[in-house]
């Protein structure tokens, strides 16, 4: 069996499901504003957000189009997570590729959101340590886990170099330029020249 046909690790499946559920709630809140805000007809579905918007002022601003766009991205990302989680693509290889794509989407979207939240274009924002921990501290999870999941899945797509080497006649132990791996072990964590 090829490495590409190995099953996706269980912890990656669990991450995709947890991420999908949280992002459906978050995306729903963002897209449904002002109805999802306190006082709106859907406020009970998003009860916890009445506290979160005290720390993240962008979420409270119903005219903030970036937050709406990010929320819509959350919904698309969640749908893709669920496609992989429920094995709607019968090919393990394609499921892995889609999981890599959606994990990179999650991490990159979070980086963009964090940069946006700094309000650099408007001269920055005042630092409130509790708000910083609630917004930026929590976002580290959404950068680390999907980034690590993408890396783990991507390793199955890296080539494994052949173990037999052709040495040059110069006697210095250098690899021949004809060698497919050119002496690099791409599976080694340090990528040292062999």
Percent helix among the residues? 40-55%
Total number of strands: 0
Which word captures the global form?
Answer: elongated
Write down the oligomeric state.
single chain
User: How do the SSEs run, as a string of H and E?
Assistant: HHHHHH
With helices defined by DSSP (H or I, 4 residues minimum), what is the helix count? 6
Uncertain runs with pLDDT below 50, 5 residues or more?
168-188
* Radius of gyration over all CA atoms, rounded: 23 Å
Instruction: Report the biggest beta sheet as strand number plus sense, adding barrel if it closes.
Output: none
Structural class determined from secondary elements = mainly alpha
The mean pLDDT is 82
Strand content: under 5%
Count of the separate structural domains: 1
Question: Which descriptors would you attach to this protein?
Answer:
194 residues, mainly alpha, 6 helices
Polypeptide structure, described:
With 194 residues, this protein is mainly alpha-helical. It has one domain. The protein is 55% helix and 0% strand. The chain contains 6 helices and no strands. Helix 1 (10-31) packs antiparallel against helix 4 (65-85) and helix 5 packs antiparallel against helix 6 (129-154). The radius of gyration is 23 Å and the shape is elongated. The two termini are 27 Å apart. The model is unreliable at 168-188 (pLDDT under 50).
């Amino acid at each position: 069996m090829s490495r590409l046909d190995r099953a996706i690790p269980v912890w990656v499946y669990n991450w995709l499901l947890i991420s999908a559920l949280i992002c459906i709630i978050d995306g729903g809140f963002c897209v449904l504003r002002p109805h999802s805000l306190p006082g709106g007809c859907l406020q009970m579905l998003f009860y916890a957000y009445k506290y979160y918007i005290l720390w993240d002022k962008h979420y409270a601003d119903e005219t903030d189009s970036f937050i709406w766009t990010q929320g819509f991205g959350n919904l698309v990302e969640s749908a893709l997570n669920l496609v992989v989680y429920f094995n709607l693509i019968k090919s393990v290889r394609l499921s892995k590729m889609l999981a890599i794509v959606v994990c990179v989407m999650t991490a990159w979207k979070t980086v963009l959101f964090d940069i946006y939240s700094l309000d650099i274009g408007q001269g920055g924002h005042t630092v409130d340590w509790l708000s910083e921990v609630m917004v930026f501290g929590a976002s580290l999870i959404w950068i680390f886990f999907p980034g690590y999941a993408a890396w783990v899945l991507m390793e199955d797509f890296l080539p494994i170099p052949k173990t037999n080497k052709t040495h040059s006649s110069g006697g210095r132990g250098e690899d021949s330029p004809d060698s497919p791996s050119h002496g690099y072990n791409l599976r080694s964590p340090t990528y040292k020249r062999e």
